[in-house]
Amino acid sequence: MITVITGAANGLGRALALASHERGEDVLAIDLDAQSLETLPTKWIALDLTSADAAARIASESPISRIIHSAGISGTGPFESIPAEHHARILALNLEAPVAITCALLRAQAMAPGATHAFVGSLSTYTGYPGAVSYAASKDGLASFAASLRKSLPDGDHAACIFPGPMATNHAARYAPDNSEKTVAARQSTEEAAALILKGLDARKAVIVPGGKARLMATVCKLAPGLAGRLLKKALYEKLTEPRL
Amino acid sequence: MPHALITGASDGIGRALVDVYHAKEWDITATARRPAEAIMPELPCAYVPLDLTTGAESLLEKLPPKLDLAILNAGAGKVAAPADHSAEDVAQMIALNTTAPLLLAQALFPRLEGGTLAFIGSTAARGAHKDFSVYAATKAALSGAARSLALEWEGLVKVLMLHPGPTATTMHDKAGLGDIAARRFFTPPAKVAASLADAIDRGKNRRLGAAYTARHALEGLFK
Ligand SMILES: NC(=O)c1ccc[n+]([C@@H]2O[C@H](COP(=O)([O-])OP(=O)(O)OC[C@H]3O[C@@H](n4cnc5c(N)ncnc54)[C@H](OP(=O)(O)O)[C@@H]3O)[C@@H](O)[C@H]2O)c1
Fold this sequence. Notes:
The structure holds two protein chains of two kinds. Chain A has a seven-stranded parallel β-sheet, with helices on both faces. Chain A has helices spanning 11-22, 34-38, 54-59, 84-107, 133-152, 170-175, 181-186, 190-202, 212-223, 225-235, and strands at 2-6, 26-31, 43-46, 64-69, 111-120, 158-162, 207-208. In chain A, helix 9 packs across helix 10 (225-235). Chain A has a single domain (2-239), classed as NAD(P)-binding Rossmann-like Domain (Rossmann fold), CATH 3.40.50. Chain A is globular, with a radius of gyration of 17 Å. Chain A is built from ten helices and seven strands. The longest helix of chain A has 24 residues, at 84-107. Chain A is α/β, with parallel strands linked by helices. By secondary structure, chain B is of the alpha/beta class. Chain B contains eight helices and seven strands. Chain B has a seven-stranded parallel β-sheet with strand order 3-2-1-4-5-6-7, sandwiched between helices. In chain B, helix 2 links the parallel strand 2 (27-32) and strand 3. In chain B, helix 4 packs parallel to helix 5. Chain B is globular and about 45 Å long. Chains A and B meet through helix 4, helix 5 and helix 10 of A and helix 4 and helix 5 of B. Bound molecules: NADP nicotinamide-adenine-dinucleotide phosphate (NAP).
């Protein structure tokens, strides 16, 4: 029985791989970056998830009891200023790859009975994400896919979508406009997020919002999406003077 | 006269939208894949044949410098369990329903300032239909993009997200839905197009939900 974690070289994916490994699971860590993967105590393969043979390579490790699709990139800045190829790349890696891999794993019967498919969405689902249009698109696509998938899986199998709040990762450092000490200190550690996510997956929750702060943000956004959207626009979009890819 | 671009205008809802804006005496540029001979002379406007998943250069060349409205409506689905979607199915659907409209919106930005951009989604977007999982995801993605872009372009371009419900077009045959009884209750495309145009007029997002479909199905029964 294998636990597959994509995007496992860094950030949340790495924390999920380590936490799953510590619980005694047989983890297969996947990412592009072999150098970082090498430093993990788990089994790993360096793999471009958008390549044609990605699904087959993962399926060959079956039976899979849990797969967490954590790999993702972003691109922040005014929509029109981000190169078209980059928008396309975000949709290919964040949305197309996990959807196509899920379909292929099901077709190959690579999942163990009772298996879990988990996807990483974004809190922006409740508001929109000015400054990251195609990222928001990819994450809303995943949330919808997880909801449909849950209906189509055999009884006992599970699909979940995770909606993390701001975490202290390289991803955030790369794409966020403000990386002052204070802002970074307020972000959730990936270890904490990973522990809460695994707990949610064990409890077979369909929607996992890890931590009090993320839950508070989700609630505020749900109650006042218009206001939250405008605040996000002020806090993020208007501070992004040039695109970050 | 105001000028509108309508994609997916050779059939179904897009074709009905052409009639709505033609009746309002707008100038229209229509586009879809099939060759002009297949829809002319009935189509009452300029037509550019183009597969939108291969880029939009040839379309952009033919558009006027200012557009008052762009309705990005071209789309397609597949009805099947996730396991029965090939990698090619997934790639095609995301390319047509999500990536193509986003990239076209980007390319149209300079022409659209002061105008309206309307994305056509689907009430299925929220997910939770087991055989429409990939299609729903592509439309949810489009919807997430529209919500974000509306905030970014506020005051520059009005960005709208319009979600039709089940509509009596040939889309369902192409998607492999089969002859289910519920299809009798699907709304005629002319009605849906009129409602979408009305939402565009009012500058409001709209979802033509179950109540809308039921109301029009009842109207149909009593006619
Ligand atoms: N019918 C429904 O129940 C329903 C419900 C909710 C949402 N929608 C959405 O509403 C929109 C219109 O649907 P419809 O029912 O009118 O479908 P339709 O009758 O099948 O029309 C689809 C249009 O898109 C064009 N098209 C397809 N692939 C294309 C490509 N690769 N490049 C350029 N054009 C392409 C088609 O023309 P060619 O074949 O000539 O290219 C046609 O004009 C779609 O986005 C659909 O997802 C439909």
